[in-house]
Specification:
Radius of gyration: 13 Å
Distance between the termini: 44 Å
Oligomer: single chain
Low-confidence stretches: none
Number of helices: 1
Number of strands: 4
Shape: globular
Order of helices and strands: EEEEH
């Protein structure tokens, strides 16, 4: 089975850094060092909106 999803990583990440990747559909994230490992299904757009609104500010 081939993974047909397109994964993207920040252009600011370096090859030695701990990074995450997300799908272009903004519905899954995964560890960039383990591309064949598990992914987490999330509402990335909703999460980004919550961060921008200050929902997670202390």
């Amino acid at each position: 089975m081939t993974d047909s999803k397109v994964w993207i990583k920040s252009s600011r990440s370096q090859s030695t850094a701990t990074c995450v990747e997300l799908t272009t559909a903004l519905d899954e994230i995964r560890d960039s060092k383990d591309p064949h490992g598990p992914s987490l299904r999330v509402n990335v757009a909703g999460f980004v909106q919550a961060v921008k609104s200050g929902r997670f500010d202390r």
